[in-house]
Amino acid sequence: MRIVCQKSELQRSVNIVSKAVALKSPNPILEGLLVSTEENNVVLYGSDDTLSIKNSTKAVVVEEGKIVLPARILSEILAKFDDCELSMYTEDNNMVMECGHSKTTLCCLDAEMYPAFPEYDATNGILMFAEKMVSMIDQTVFATSISEDKPILTGILVEIESKSTKMVALDGYRLAIREENIESSIDHKEVIVPAKSMREVARILPEDESDVKLFFGERMMSIVCGDTEINTRVLQGDYIKYNNIIPDNFITRVIVNRHELYNSLERASIMARQTKTNVVNLNIDGETLTITSNSEVGKAREELDINLTGKNLEISFNSRYLLDVLKEVDDEEIVFDLNTAISPCVIRPISGNSFLYMVLPVKTSNTNV
Length: 369
Prior knowledge:
By secondary structure, this protein is of the alpha+beta class. It is built from six helices and 26 strands. It has helices at residues 7-17, 71-80, 130-138, 195-204, 258-272, 319-328; strands at residues 2-6, 32-38, 41-47, 51-58, 60-63, 66-70, 85-91, 94-99, 102-107, 125-129, 155-161, 165-170, 174-180, 188-194, 211-216, 220-225, 228-233, 252-257, 279-285, 288-295, 298-305, 307-310, 313-318, 333-338, 345-349, 355-359. The strands form four sheets. It has a nine-stranded antiparallel beta sheet with strand order 14-11-12-13-26-25-24-18-22. Strands 6-2-3-4-17-16-15-10 form an eight-stranded antiparallel beta sheet. Strands 5-1-7-8-9 form a five-stranded antiparallel beta sheet. A hairpin with a 3-residue loop joins strand 3 and strand 4 (51-58). It starts with a strand and ends in a 10-residue tail after the last strand.
């Protein structure tokens, strides 16, 4: 193999593909990147057997070839090279890299041992903007479970209908639903994608109106955006019937400024974090919401103006669960629907159905049902 390319472009490609490479693997080949040539491109491919990423960048291909290089070391070398034209060529079992006045030789691994890039059905998919997909992931992935007790909850449910796409996450304490009106030829499709894979997808995709194509198979989901292809295995099993756990009615409805509520909760959570339960107490009384937190080192009290429909209520929450929601929502004002101090709180937009969050309260010694 012999190629010439811009160092910065190859470095960008390596950074993208490296997100799929295992840091430590029983199979050492998976700690490497497959580097190959294809017409006027150099193609990089990385995989950890769950997530696979391919990216191509322009290059002058003098001599075709295919080799595997250690991903971490290659990334470190490129980061230290000057930003100039890079020449790469194989010599025996080594890759020689020349950039400016620098020359580095790196041992190669056998490309034939690297797993093949997964194939996908390019006829069975949907199209959306990259920024929408990133938004949907960011606004749900935090609610996935980190416990392996119920592996299915460590993933995001992607639910495709003919006119809408949903992403759903649930960890037993909170539920996150994000919906976009996206038309497709798919009547109904559900896949559960590991949260780790989805986080990497959100980091790779540009937050703009670039086209993203999603393709679905029985055991994988594929994402194609520009010169990048991402394939992830999906989790097997049935997801919880989440619609059955969302309350249909409410006794108390609060409309509140999201930014003001977030800032107040952040201040109150400083004291809440000094306790094991991380609890903040919310007292809804007329047109005022009072937030308090107590610990051995001090107390906090915040007051906010609200619009109340229904009954007054006192209720307590883990402050982090509320902050996780408020940090991701963009709306200026949001709705809190509640029933009792021990029943779930539903957070939604004032109009439309773009998102829905449900958070379980914390039962305290002062809880009144």
